[in-house]
Design brief:
It is a single chain. This protein is an alpha/beta fold. It is built from 15 helices and 21 strands. The strands form 4 sheets. It has a 15-stranded mixed β-sheet that branches. A two-stranded antiparallel ribbon has the order 1-2. Strands 7-8 form a two-stranded antiparallel sheet.
Length: about 550
């Protein structure tokens, strides 16, 4: 990174001036909070670890110091989130490749985990079958299973959608990922089909992250909401296999993996048994129910307190995992997502500094267990503190920009709601433009905490600094982005740096303040576009509005 942190003060003019104050978004204050939250003392902010208590204490105090009131359960700062933790140990899996044994080394060849078994898991000569992308989408006339019974078998699948490498086919959304492309869907569909397990073939381009990210994310404890029978939602093996391991498997079966990848892009694809290939071995599973917490502060509305505008960011990260080449085992999660939590706190300060009580209630929600599948936000959406029918809309913040100012603001999942129209106007005042999702094929719209609320009809904006840097243009922006994803994302190197340039982050947070303040002091209800798949859910709640 190229410059020292800028103590940037972004004046928020029109709204704040009316109240006789000028709230200031300070990059230095945000940096200070990130430095604490991502320090080794917070041990990577693992869910249901001693570090969680530190996070709750820090964020609650920061909310209080900023002038918020508790917004959680029973007059407190938190909402209880009941989860089940699954810790896999002693994995010993191997493949029988037509008489040849191939041991699968955890972290090198496979990442064996589960959220579908409460005790030890074992496999004995369990057959494998390749099912393409593992998608059942009747509305698209798509069925990768073709009535083939995969109960008790291991299904091998490709990541992303069939359109990824052939976007002009337009059988799904072209280059833009649908939910069918997410690993979460692959595992869910496998459970619905009764499969014993899933092996997702890793592909850095289609997954949008490298093998190190997979290894670090899936070699630690996994979490899910508490279910009476977890096997209904998850198979007993949830795994990724490396590209090299996959090649060995298909070669041993006498199959051309590259040819099958192409065949899987067609509706006519049929499952292909991997004849003579079976899985044996197992692992121990320690399953326990744990309690985590969402952390919530609020500014109660003066005129319409039952109508809520919210800001959201996840506080958790991976915690402590396998040491990297330097021996560092703490995954500090400075960018992902101490930046978002620090922005929540700074936004709370800005609202209080405005000197005006908002007409509507403004909530500041730091959710847990995002890294485990958006579980904190899913729990909140299922058990809302503020009724969803009277929740006006919100802004989600995840992994904010630490590389400097940009000329554009990128909307993830662009084209969804009228919130983008407001953001466009506000961005223009900063001499910035809105641009659509740079990499829709990565499926970021399905990978952050706005999604559980959006699918229930609540308009939520998820935006970030674009890649067109004021200094260096798109070339510099892409270089910063690629460096982060290759060397820091879900790795121990995601640490606070005194060399960050938070000027762009401060501009973004200023936009979020202005947009939230506009919503909080109006009678307007944001609308989904007519083409949005979330509009119908929102329309059902229209009767609850004034």
């Amino acid at each position: 990174m190229r410059t020292q942190i800028l103590t940037l003060s972004v004046s928020l003019m029109a709204l704040a001036a009316a109240a006789g104050a000028e709230p200031v978004i300070s990059g230095a204050r945000i940096s200070d909070d990130v430095k604490v939250l991502s320090s080794d003392e917070f041990a990577g902010r693992g869910v249901a670890t001693p570090a969680e208590d530190k996070v709750v204490a820090f964020v609650s105090k920061a909310y209080k110091d900023a002038g918020l009131e508790p917004g959680g359960e029973n007059g407190g700062w938190t909402q209880t989130v009941k989860l089940r933790k699954f810790q896999v140990s002693d994995p010993a899996l191997s493949l029988n490749l037509k008489g040849q044994t191939l041991p699968l080394v955890q972290g090198e060849d496979i990442t064996a985990s589960t959220r579908g078994a409460l005790g030890a898991v074992s496999f004995t000569d369990t057959p494998l079958v390749f099912v393409g992308y593992g998608v059942t989408a009747p509305e698209r006339g798509w069925d990768d299973f073709k009535d083939v019974d995969v109960k008790g078998k291991i299904i091998v699948v490709l990541i992303n959608d069939p359109d990824f490498y052939q976007p002009d086919a337009q059988t799904f959304n072209g280059k833009a990922m649908t939910y069918y492309g997410r690993w979460t869907y692959k595992f869910e569909e496998a459970a619905r089909k009764g499969a014993a397990g899933v092996m997702i073939i890793h592909d850095s381009a289609a997954a949008s992250y490298g093998w190190n990210t997979v290894k670090n994310s899936w070699s630690v404890a996994q979490f899910d909401i508490v279910r009476p029978d977890p096997s209904v939602a998850s198979p007993k093996l949830e795994s990724w296999i490396s590209a090299s391991a996959a090649e060995k498997i298909f070669e041993a079966a006498g199959l051309d993996l590259n040819a099958l990848k192409i065949a899987a892009r067609s509706k006519d694809f049929k499952p292909v048994p991997l004849d003579g290939i079976t899985l044996s071995g197992g692992y121990k599973v320690a399953a326990e129910e744990v309690v985590s917490r969402n952390i919530i502060g609020q500014l109660k509305g003066a005129k319409r307190p039952d109508e809520t505008v919210f800001y959201m960011a996840h506080w958790d990260h991976i915690g402590i995992g396998s040491p990297d080449a330097d021996g560092d085992a703490i995954f500090n999660g400075a960018v992902d997502n101490a930046t978002g939590v620090a922005a929540l706190i700074e936004l709370a300060r800005a609202f209080k500094a405005s000197g005006k009580t908002p007409d509507r209630t403004v909530a500041f929600i730091a959710v847990t267990a995002e890294e485990s599948g958006l579980l904190g936000s899913e729990y909140y959406a299922s058990n809302p503190i503020y009724p969803l029918a009277k929740t006006v809309g919100g802004i989600n913040m995840d992994a904010l920009n630490v590389s400097g100012r940009t000329r554009n603001v990128e909307v993830v999942g662009s084209g969804q709601s009228s919130l983008e129209d407001d953001l466009k106007t506000l961005a223009a005042a900063q001499d910035r433009v809105l641009t659509p999702d740079e990499t829709p094929e990565a499926g970021y719209f399905f990978r952050s905490d706005h999604f559980p609320l959006a699918k229930r009809g609540v308009p939520v904006l998820y935006a970030a600094s674009g890649l067109d840097m004021v200094e260096g243009g798109v070339t510099a922006g892409r270089a910063f982005d690629e460096d982060y994803r290759k060397n820091r994302y879900h790795q121990a190197n995601d640490e606070w740096s005194a060399d960050w340039d938070l000027s762009g982050l401060a501009e973004d947070v200023a936009l979020y303040y202005q947009l939230g303040a506009k919503l909080a002091n109006s009678t307007v209800w944001p609308q989904w576009r007519e083409t949005s798949e979330f509009k119908a859910a929102r329309d059902k709640t229209a009767a609850a509005r004034p």
